[in-house]
Write a structure and sequence with these properties.
The chain has 411 residues and is mostly beta strands. It folds into 2 domains: 64 residues, no CATH class; 302 residues, Methylamine Dehydrogenase, Chain H (7 Propeller), CATH 2.130.10. The protein contains 3 helices and 28 strands. The strands form 8 sheets. It has a 4-stranded antiparallel sheet, with no helix packed on it. Helix 1 runs antiparallel to helix 3. It is globular, with a radius of gyration of 25 Å.
């Protein structure tokens, strides 16, 4: 039996052979050489047949079992995405798309000056949790229940009691593909999700599990929904608020549609809480004055709407009743804020605070009325200050650029 170092060397050799063979296959000279049984002219590289034979010889001698990789590109720390606050029970919840977990902190956690990791109260993590790509999160303070919407490979809503920790078994509800935003209504006893791919909002009974069918949906050309992301259910005003990136393709959900897709400006849409079908929004915030730029998380408190702009590295705040191409009332942006790639945002109206989840290692707390380039009141850190962010959310493919010697990894 070969030792670990020998196994690592053999693994790397096989990868190199596979990459070399693939490169030969993409060139006409490689194909010609394979046909004639000689080496690629002038290079000394093996033919496809020779490479395959060599691969089989090496592979036959590689032991199975727990073989370590040659190299590992990974962020060992969580990377925040969604955020929700419960000021009644004094907790704050973050979703983590990197380690596939949920982290619960005391509402008063964090420091404006410390660079150390902020210890969570609990971290829900493990195969029994069903967490694979948690994005939008919500808290039910009445029943002390955590809800997390699962994007991409998850396709479910996972729920847990507040006391859950570690590899805690989830209660799950099957959902359409590519869930992002999540909101709860205690008035109607319902939960709502946005679905990116199908340009829709889907409503379920609050607490539904298994393959329970939806109660209703909002979808259609009149809705204006286009790659919807964040969702906030404003029970106080009987409204559902949604952010759109703007990518629209009816063909994703209508196989008979032949019109193709298009790009719309990013927007914030407000629907009646009981909307269904191809319903028009009550109000739409969109246009160059809005400064919307890949809007993700959204939150409402009183008469204000806060939006996290992923590509704009900003949080914009609008009047709740605003519509059209309107400038924000306030905008948090700049190096002092620490806002880099904001994915989630949450108002805490009880304590007059605004929470921001960066796609990375910080959760930021501002005064709810903060404006401009101002420093946060507190910072929750899931890694030591200065730790690089790998930026891996849910890598699904990889390409190697031979000319620049770079790995290209889309999330």
């Amino acid at each position: 039996m070969r030792n670990t170092n020998q196994a690592r060397k053999l693994s790397c050799a096989v990868i190199a052979l596979l990459m070399g063979s693939s490169l030969l296959a993409l060139t006409g000279t490689g194909a010609h050489a394979a046909q004639h049984g000689d080496k690629k002219a002038g290079t000394g590289q093996p033919t496809m047949a020779q490479a395959a034979a060599l691969f089989e010889k090496i592979a036959a001698g590689i032991p199975g079992g727990d073989i370590p990789p040659c190299r590992n590109l990974a962020d060992p720390y969580p990377e925040f995405n969604g955020v929700a606050v419960d000021p009644v029970n004094n907790i704050v919840l973050f979703s983590d798309t990197n380690l596939k977990s949920l982290l619960v902190y005391p509402r008063t956690a964090g420091s404006a000056h410390s660079g150390a990791i902020t210890p969570p109260l609990r971290q829900i993590l493990g195969p029994a949790t069903y967490l694979s790509f948690a994005c939008g999160v919500a808290l039910d303070p009445r029943h002390k229940t955590i809800y997390a919407g699962e994007n991409d490979v998850g396709d479910d809503i996972a729920s847990f009691p507040y006391s859950a920790n570690g590899n805690y078994p989830a209660r799950t509800l099957a959902t359409p593909h590519e869930v992002y935003g999540l909101g709860l209504s205690f008035k109607l006893g319902q939960e709502a999700i946005t679905v990116e791919q199908d340009d829709q909002i889907v409503f379920f009974k609050l607490g539904a599990t298994g393959a329970a069918p939806p109660l209703r949906e909002v979808r259609g050309e009149r809705t204006g929904l286009a790659d919807p992301h964040g969702l906030f259910w404003d029970d106080a005003h009987d409204e559902v608020v949604v952010t759109n990136h703007g990518n629209w393709a009816r063909g994703a959900w209508d196989p008979d549609y032949q019109g193709g897709g298009h790009y719309q400006p990013p927007s914030v849409e407000v629907f009646a809480a009981d909307a269904q079908g191809d319903a028009k929004p009550l109000r739409v915030i969109s246009g160059p004055k809005t400064q919307l730029n890949w809007p993700a998380g959204v939150s409402v408190a009183g008469d204000e709407i806060a939006v996290a702009n992923m590509a704009g590295a900003s949080v914009t705040i609008y009047r709740r009743t605003a519509s059209g191409d309107v400038a924000p009332l306030r905008q948090l942006e700049g190096p002092k804020t620490g806002i880099t790639i904001p994915m989630g945002v949450a108002f805490d109206p009880v304590n007059h605070e605004l929470w921001v989840a960066n796609f990375g290692h910080t959760g930021l707390v501002f005064d709810a009325g903060a404006n401009g380039d101002v420093a946060p009141k507190r910072i929750i850190r899931n890694a030591p200050a200065g730790t690089p962010v790998a930026g891996f959310g849910n890598p699904m493919a990889m390409a190697f650029d031979t000319r620049r010697q770079e790995l290209l990894v889309p999330n």
